[in-house]
Amino acid sequence: MGLPKVLTEQQTKFATLLVTNEGRKSPTECAIEAGYAEGSAHVRASELRNPRKFPLVVKYIDEIRSELQEKYRVDYGSHITELARLREEAREKGAWSAAINAEVARGKAAGLYIEQKIIKHGKLEDLSERELEARLSEIIEDNKLLLEHEDVESLKDKVKKPTELKIVEPIED
């Protein structure tokens, strides 16, 4: 019998639906929409993606994916250029928030921002004095370059002494 040399209309429709709806529709749903019977759509969708059974369909699916990836390809240069274009359009319309967001996104793409997340577990109040001192020593050791070479004992003394809080008023532009 041999393998067919061309795709049927149903196979072409299935492949197109599968690629353009990835993540939104299952292969079974794509098979049903392409015209395959609901009762056998799951099996048919699986078979159509099997290169031993339907190599032309699999090849066509790969071709469509490649075309879409090329069409919507994102690289650094095009990404930064597009964000700059969006920023300028937003500026022209007076949409300052959108313009700022586009500029921040450009900065993030360029690596100008570093996002840090600190996840805390437990409360300091739940720690014993020994655990607090151990934790404080660990923090000081981890950040010794930032602490201008102060020794651990003097920092512990500073932390233990109650300090007076100063309220700073914000400067208005």
The rough form would be described as elongated
**Oligomeric grouping of the chains:** single chain
Mean pLDDT, to the nearest integer, reads 83
What are the low-pLDDT stretches, counting only 5+ consecutive residues below 50?
none
Structure class: mainly alpha
Helix count, DSSP H or I runs of 4 or more residues: 8
- DSSP strand count: 0
The tally of structural domains comes to 3
Largest sheet: none
Gap between N and C termini: 82 Å
Rg over CA atoms: 30 Å
Fraction of residues in H or I helices = 55-70%
Helix/strand order, N-terminal first: HHHHHHHH
Per DSSP, what share of the residues sits in E-state strands of 2 or more residues? under 5%
In short:
The chain is an all-alpha fold and 173 residues long. 57% of the residues lie in helices and 0% in strands. Helix 1 packs parallel to helix 4 and helix 5 (76-92) packs antiparallel against helix 6 (96-109).
What can you see in these coordinates?
With 173 residues, the chain is mostly helical. It folds into three domains: 9-71; 76-109; 127-160. Helices cover 57% and strands 0% of the residues. The chain starts with 8 loop residues before the first helix and ends in a 13-residue tail after the last helix.
